[in-house]
Amino acid sequence: MTPLARPIFHAVQELAVGSLFCLALLPPLLIRRGFFQTCVLIVASPMGLGVWVSPTPASTVFFVSLLLYGGSLWMPDGRWPTLMLRLSLAIGTGGIVLPSLTSFGGLSLFATMTAQVLNTLTSALILGTALIGMLLGHYYLRDSQLPVALIRRLANLFLLATVLQGLFLLVNLGALYLFGGAEAAAKIGLLSSSYVAVFLGRLFVGILGSFILACVIWDTLRIPNVQAATGFFYIAILTVTIGEFLGRYLWHSTAIPF
Asked: What angle do CA 46, 98, 44 make, to 5 degrees?
């Protein structure tokens, strides 16, 4: 896999896991199955492309479980979609944290591994809430009687994820600078030289930009104006996608949790 393809596919897997988590928060009795089917189709398409280009055992199993979940949405028994959603979510979560777990060894590496696992889960949440929030906002145009509390729930999680991501970045860089020694200082130095443009893009577009949009969405839904919030979710999709790709690229290039 090429240096650019690896962070892209990693971000796609995080998007799929985060989307499944958000779908698990939505009540299937209030929303038609067509919405869930559309979401699975959108998520499975880039996953399938990634598996076709560069298959791995973890990504292949996750993709198959995603297809099984999508197929279960056509079954009349409502228990199967719930079961397959939970199974696919568990498999996908294991798949995205596996690269971090393989770095285990020693106290310092364990701390780095823990930081990267937390950052990965937060990235999955921020991607999933942005995508499902946008799609759910469109669904409100079809069913105006749907409770606003559903999309507000996703907006709250989106805001929380952006805050956590910013905090994790500060804590990770601070801990590396204070306790990481010469090797960690050399890695941090790369952020101000070789990867300064990538780092600034990750910081100002992926984290700060997404946080500002999350605040705007949260405030818009207080009115509530679902249509306006959906438009801001559109913009958020761009900022989080760019930010997460840059974050995964920095991680694979510098071994610093982003």
From this structure: 15
Task: Identify the burial level of 174 via C-beta atoms within 10 angstroms of its C-beta, where 0-12 means exposed, 13-18 middle and 19 or more buried.
Answer: exposed
Name the pTM for this structure.
0.92
Domain ranges, residue 243 = 5-254
Which CATH number covers residue 80? 1.20.1630
Question: What CA–CA distance (Å, rounded) separates 235 from 220?
Answer: 14
Report the C-alpha gap between 122 and 128 in whole angstroms: 10
Number of domains in the chain: 1
Could you report the per-residue pLDDT of 6-50, keeping only the tens digit for each?
Answer: 788 889 999 999 999 999 999 988 999 999 999 999 999 999 998
